[in-house]
Amino acid sequence: MIYIHIPFCKQACNYCDFHFATSKRYIEDLQKALLKEIRLRRDEIPDQISSIYFGGGTPSLLSDKQLSEILETIHSNFNVQPDAEITLEANPDDLNINYLKEIKNIGINRLSIGIQSFRERDLQFMNRAHSANEAANCTLLAADAGFKNMSVDLIYAIPGLSDEEWEQNIQIAAGLPINHLSCYALTVEEKTPLAKQIKTGVAAAPEEDRAVSQFKILQTCSSALGYTHYEISNLAKPGFEAQHNSSYWSGKEYLGIGPSAHSFSKNLRRVNIPNNQKYISSLRDGDCLHETEIIDKKTRFHELILTGFRTSQGVSLQEITQLSSEYLNYFKSRIENHPLRKFISIEDDHVKLSPEKWLLADGIASDFFY
Ligand code: SF4
Description:
Elements: E1 2-6, H1 27-40, E2 49-56, H2 64-77, E3 80-90, H3 97-105, E4 110-116, H4 120-125, H5 132-144, E5 150-156, H6 163-174, E6 180-185, H7 193-199, H8 208-224, E7 228-231, E8 234-236, H9 243-249, E9 255-257, E10 262-265, E11 268-272, H10 276-284, E12 290-294, H11 297-308, E13 315-316, H12 317-323, H13 325-336, E14 344-347, E15 350-353, H14 361-366
Parallel strand pairs: 1-2, 1-9, 2-3, 3-4, 4-5, 5-6
Antiparallel strand pairs: 6-8, 7-8, 10-11, 11-12, 13-15, 14-15
Bound molecules: iron/sulfur cluster.
């Protein structure tokens, strides 16, 4: 699995703490640096590549030619499966029919569109660059261009978004040619414009009770509409679960290309420098600035529980056994004595947390830390 980070956006959404720049001044230099990093790291993942994911930032700010060069470089340096899932994160305002046809032509076969809401008021609150009209129309245009695999991002618990309006957002998405939903509660990250707006009283803070009620609406409504809730934030029509996401959760090795991108391989996690200019100049000098962290067995044990409790697949006992039988015995004994035992099941060698408790998954998982 290969992830490519495109660190540019038209404007800053008020809640976002990802790495991106709003000036496109270095976009060409950065694309060249990405090509160089791909070539430099060609031996790091020997397996067949089943998924390529352009994330960001806003990858749809790259032209079809720039994306095509990146894909060609990946194909000539890695063993990419013929049926690999190739996803482009895109914003609605970048998607016109010509661009959509071009990117389909170069091999992009899945879109993940940052719609966030079909309501103008919410989009303005979050400082999104697109309009409600563009949000609804872009998926129809993409379907016309031949895309059959489309995901959209939606945000709930936005201040002012009522439960009825949230349900309508889900219904609107389900009425469009979309087979995957990624739904997140609005959270306030440190140092974001939203955090500042709340502090100065310009914006209201998201309410926790609203997040809980809208998560429940998401579960009931999406299930009635034929979506399977396979991870706390991800829902799919049968057969459209994202390979990219599932590979992360199942602990597969992955290669992250670009500034701030993470990689995971042979108990090492690597993070590229989150600075566009330093990233570009380090690659000009023939290396890529990064930091590396060793993931020891205990950290891996904790990660397996944290990710497993957020998914319908659950925590694999086999993977824990491979780490250490001591962890396995500890985990099993803690399950039996846990106050929420009735919400935890053991099926097919997997420990599963009931979806109604997924919003508390991180806290519950930490009860099992060694
Ligand atoms: S478009 Fe995406 S990456 Fe860019 S600021 Fe908005 S949420 Fe963040």
